[in-house]
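retry 2 of 3: previous attempt timed out while embedding CCH. Reduced batch size to 1 and resubmitted. Inputs unchanged:
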Amino acid sequence: TAPQDKKLATPSKVDYNEVRKSVAALLDDANFDDGSYGPLFVRLGWHASGTYSHLDSTGGSNGGCMRFEPESGWGANKGLHLARERLEAVYRAHPGLTYADLYTLAAVVAIEEMGGPQIKWRPGRNDHKDGKKSPADGRLPDAAQGAQHIRDIFYRMGFNDQEIVALIGAHSLGRCHTDRSGYDGPWTFAPTTFSNEFFRLLLEEKWNLRRWNGPKQYEDTKTKTLMMLPADMALIEDPEFRKYVVVYAKDGDKFAKDFASAFEKLLELGIDFKTTDGSTHGKNESLWKRI
Ligand code: CCH
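retry 2 succeeded.
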């Protein structure tokens, strides 16, 4: 049997379809950003998982540690308390549900509800009682940097160049907030719709440095309403990354498929799913083979 088909040793009483429905019902809010918590939920699931290091098997979504110091206070996680607070009602309504499972499932539901691909997801993450096992700050990417930094960060998680580009395609969703990252504005004209528009805009628009008092970021020359981070621009400046940008800009279905695989892998980094035959899988043995 493929690892994902084995039965969990301790089947949970939680009805995850009901959890999905509860999350979906919380997405829309006309007074919040572009009308949806979806993009913020995606960022929550990604930041909960993206601390993983395959070098020492620390970090990752297990533990649900972002609700504690120090992770809750990291600069990179600014604003994510809004997502966690929004999801609190779902946690309370489903005894047995872990925060660690909820933070990752919320991202999956958000992507699906915003028109994205189905992403394989399974429960099995535990909650830690405090934030003591959180790694030191600095594992999430710095938007001011370029290709080398992006590779350092994502290779540490175990991703290759193609997966890196696919994952960052999530910037078709949402926007930057001056009171969180310091950056400002959305990447696309439809920030609550999953699409390959981020890649098309990267290639097709002309991007100039924005003249403003904030951090270095780019704006489109036509409407001056869209933005790119220095780290986003690295995807077209670096020839290896650029190859995949070209592929995904042309083929939205391929992007959706590759994004789903990479995002599934991201959410499972460092997780041991206990199975009925006593074996464990996870710690990414199975995932490693796919690199
Ligand atoms: Fe991202 N991202 N991200 N990002 N991100 C920001 C917002 C979102 C970087 C920087 C930023 C991924 C990779 C990277 C989302 C998903 C993903 C912001 C603005 C910055 C800065 C935060 C703010 O001010 O609110 C950098 C750098 C990288 C890689 O190098 C990956 C991978 C994903 C998911 C797969 C989403 C969604 C948002 C929008 C959040 C919102 O509130 O709208």
